[in-house]
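re: that chain from earlier
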Amino acid sequence: MIQKIQSIFKIPELRRRILFTLGVLIVYRIGGHVPTPGINAAALGQWFQEAAASNTLFGLFDMFVGGAFQRATVFGLGIMPYINASIILQLLGSAVPYFQRLQKEGEEGRKKITQYTRYGTVLLAAMQAWGASVFLESIQASAGGMAIVPNPGIGFKLMTMVTLTTGTVFIMWLGEQITERGIGNGISLIIMIGIVARYPQAFLGELYQLMQANRQLIIELILLAIMFWTISAVIMLTQGTRKIPVQYAKRVIGRKVYGGQSTHIPLRVITAGVMPIIFAQAIIFVPQTVATFFQGNPFWEGVARYFSYSHEVYWFFYGLLIVFFTYFYTAIAFNPTDVADNMKKQGGFIPGVRPGKKTAEFIDNILTKITLPGSIFLALIAIFPYIVNKVFNVEMEFALIFGGTGLLIVVGVVLDTLQQIESHLLMRHYDGFMKTGRLRGRR
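^ sequence. v structure.
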């Protein structure tokens, strides 16, 4: 492995790309500590602890931005408005004919979709920033009497909206710069670095528990073994594919013969990636989020208790939502009819299956079968941190390393980045990271 790392820095272009990526990520982390004007960050952090906001939509949002929302920094919204705009356009692409045409127009269509995504990012960031300012003003009487917004009013709202929207646009630009001039997918790396930033504190907290004799050494070793096997399982399922053989007929054009080759269609076990967990979390956290605004109400206190991450009711509905959204998002992301039509136009066919409608039905049937174990695996991975928290009584910050959205994002981004680095190494006749086999990216 040391030789592989040395080989990376022997290639000038790859070295420049990696150093540029690291530099941009450092800038992003520095910006995540620049406070937004007009907000008492200490009072906001105290409110997060008092209201147990980590199990709400605010906690989910804060996880993706690496704690910047809890600290009320200029990068408080993170890259989430861009992600939301991308999801909206992807959903429109499956329902609106205009966006369907753009998706099929190749490079020009992608440029237009990217431009619309940028406009949507600015609009969503402005709306979320305005909502965040109203939310911050609404909780200013909490946090032990300390005012979260010392000077509320229209001036504070406008200043917060401009500051947070500008921060989001700057993060979007940083991500695009990484994609163009660095290594890996810039937006994905920015999300990943926000999640990974929480890991050192979680490990230090667990080490402190061990040093204070609050945890036995054998328990820590068991936890590390569970972590290793969980990450291994996530990698295997993330890379898992079902290959459908495809044969292309020979075509004679002029004096040349085209086709006549055999290939395959790789259907991923988890085609939807991490999106089902994100959608499910956004819904399952709604009861807890609403309950934070009705503290002292017996009904909402009961709802919050049942939908707490330590309750079995929460686990059950959370798992069901993940299974549902896995099928839902897979149907949006992968269209068997389009694949069958493209194969038919190029003279391709699946041995033993008639081209056209029968091919689409065959692919859809296989996709449905492999999606079921994939969705169940996603549900188990999402619930597993809560089980670890309850069984071993570890801090939730540390338990989240064992699964959930964060682990899936980190594994997917790392594999994708390593695949790009390996491509650069092999292109210049260096050995890749693996002596047997090759790393496969997420796409």
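The first strand starts at residue 241 and ends at 248.
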